[in-house]
Amino acid sequence: MQLLSNQLTTRFFSRVRQLAAPALITFLSVLLSACSSTSAVSEADSRDPLEPVNRPLWTFTWDYADKYVIKPTSEAYTEYTPAFLRSGLYNMALNLDEPSTIINHLLQLKFSEAASSTGRFVLNSTIGMLGFFDPASDFGWDRQQEEFGEVLGKYGVGDGPYLVVPALGPSSVREEVGDFVDRYYWPLAVIDFWPNLLRSAVIGLETRASLADQEQLITESVDSYEFVKNAYFQNMNYKVYDGNPPVVVDEEEEAEIEAFLDEFEDELEE
Fold first, then answer.
1. Which residues make beta-bridge pairs with 266?
2. Under 8 Å CB-to-CB from 98, ≥6 apart: which residues?
């Protein structure tokens, strides 16, 4: 359940962020400049050198933008839109991501996954009426979205500084670069602004609706900023390693545990 919550949380903000992605390029440049002038930070904060900036942006995003705009809009959309229409529009929106997924699979030499995604796109785009229906799932060709940011991570590129984009949520330098590249794959590159905005809105609203049952975990967390940040990095790591991230051992923590156990054993012997 915790992993599902992490994935839904980061999926939601990742999708909503695409609504204003072109405007992030200038914003990202400013943040990178700030990073270069930031003094050394502790190891615990190495992922988040811009925390003094990110925290108030997160407060605005979660306590105001989501509470008063995004969440009510999502609730109204899911309540008043017929289920079959919602499902069809969502399928069509996601179907347009398949070509970029195919290429990103190939870049990682995942040939079987690329073949499956190719079959999905061809079948759903034809028999499925431009993706409105999803007959590919009946053939076992499940959706396996792959982003260019994951490709970069697979080849050892780090996340870079953690970013909170106003009203759009958590991100990182690597993910923003990946999203920028993904938008230049066909057919997204040839879709006009307004249709693409509608597509991103449908995905964002549906993903926000999926988060409804788990949002209580955020509101009840001791520090929602830290909760979402950790969920973000956990989910990115999960995606890069296709659900099997390596186990990272904290040597310092392990040493402390060993010292405690040794001391405890000595006390028992006495």
1. none
2. 117, 118, 120, 121, 124
Q: Closest Cα to residue 74, out of 66, 82, 85?
A: 66
Our measurement of the distance from residue 145's CA atom to the centroid of its chain's CA atoms, rounded to an integer in Å, reads 11
User: In a 3-state reduction of DSSP, which class is residue 179?
Assistant: helix
* pLDDT tens, per residue, the chain with 270 residues: 544 455 555 555 555 455 444 444 444 444 444 444 344 444 456 899 999 999 999 999 999 999 999 999 999 999 999 999 999 999 999 999 999 999 999 999 999 999 999 999 999 999 999 999 999 999 899 999 999 999 999 999 999 999 998 888 899 999 999 999 999 999 999 999 999 999 999 999 998 998 887 888 998 999 999 999 999 999 999 999 988 888 766 666 667 777 767 776 666 666
> How many angstroms separate the CA atoms of 160 and 75, rounded?
34
Residue 169: strand pairing partners: 165
Listing DSSP states for 104-170 in one string gives HHHHTT-HHHHHHHHHHHHHHHHTTTTTTS-GGGGGT-------HHHHHHHTT----SEEEETTTEE
Helix axes 224-240, 51-60, angle to 10 degrees: 100
Burial 2-16 (b: 16+ CB within 10 A, else e): eeebbbbbbbbbbbb
Please give the backbone phi and psi of residue 47, each rounded to the nearest 5 degrees, phi first: -80, -15
Q: Strands 162-165, 169-172: parallel, antiparallel or unpaired by DSSP?
A: antiparallel
Can you name the residues that pair with 162 across neighbouring β-strands? 172
